[in-house]
Amino acid sequence: MAEIRIRKTNEIISGEENVRNFLNQFEVIYEHWDVNKLPAHLQENFSLTDDQKAEVLATFDTEIKDLVARRGYRTWDVITLSEATPNIEELLAKFEQIHTHTEDEIRAIVGGAGTFVIKGSDEIGYFDVNLLPGDLISVPENTVHFFTLTDDRKVVAIRLFVEENGWIAHPFEDPSFQKA
Ligand SMILES: [Fe+2]
């Protein structure tokens, strides 16, 4: 299950209900999928072929169609990132710049782990949402954030889009932001 760390205070928020309630105040959606549905050969596999990616999508077809019905997504895909990904350093450096989008950024983690760093209210400041397999998060449009990997540097995630070009990153300047 996801866990939240508030950067200013180091406060940890854990437990599905607490995580959901905390995120909902910023209109961040948090849901949980049953990743045990994934066939064994697709679990802990961070270099999926195109056919295997299609199998991952087929496994979660019901969950995807449910999101489509509720939130109007039109396309979706599977991404994998690991040490085997060409240009992983370059990609991570690019991801780790705070930015916004004109549509929500939704990710369902189906393998590995990942962290969304999100800017909350002035009082809360930035917080990390550490995501594990089964965790789904949707960061609303115009909310300042970035996505990064954990030290393991392995993730498989499903992304959904209303418009692919709605997801272009617009850099956000914040001199007070510190990465670590
Ligand atoms: Fe983003």
Summarize the structure.
The protein is α+β, with helices and mostly antiparallel strands. The protein is built from four helices and twelve strands, in the order ββαβααβαββββββββ. It has a single domain, classed as Jelly Rolls (Sandwich).
Q: How would you characterize the overall build of this protein?
A:
The chain has 180 residues and is α+β, with helices and mostly antiparallel strands. It has a single domain (3-171), classed as Jelly Rolls. 21% of the residues lie in helices and 32% in strands. The protein contains four helices and twelve strands, in the order ββαβααβαββββββββ. The strands form three sheets. The chain has a five-stranded antiparallel β-sheet. β7 (114-119) and β8 form a beta hairpin. Bound molecules: fe (ii) ion (FE2).
User: Could you give the distance between the termini?
Assistant: 22 Å
3D shape: globular
Strand-and-helix sequence, N→C? EEHEHHEHEEEEEEEE
Radius of gyration: 16 Å
Please describe the topology of this protein.
Blueprint: E1 3-6, E2 12-13, H1 16-24, E3 29-32, H2 50-59, H3 61-71, E4 75-81, H4 88-95, E5 99-100, E6 105-112, E7 114-119, E8 126-131, E9 135-139, E10 145-148, E11 155-161, E12 170-171
Antiparallel strand pairs: 1-2, 1-8, 3-9, 4-11, 5-12, 6-9, 6-11, 7-8, 7-10
The chain binds fe (ii) ion (FE2).
Residues 99, 101, 105, 145, 147, 169 line the site of fe (ii) ion (FE2).
Pathway: Amino-acid biosynthesis; L-methionine biosynthesis via salvage pathway; L-methionine from S-methyl-5-thio-alpha-D-ribose 1-phosphate: step 5/6
Protein name: Acireductone dioxygenase
Site (Important to generate the dianion): 107
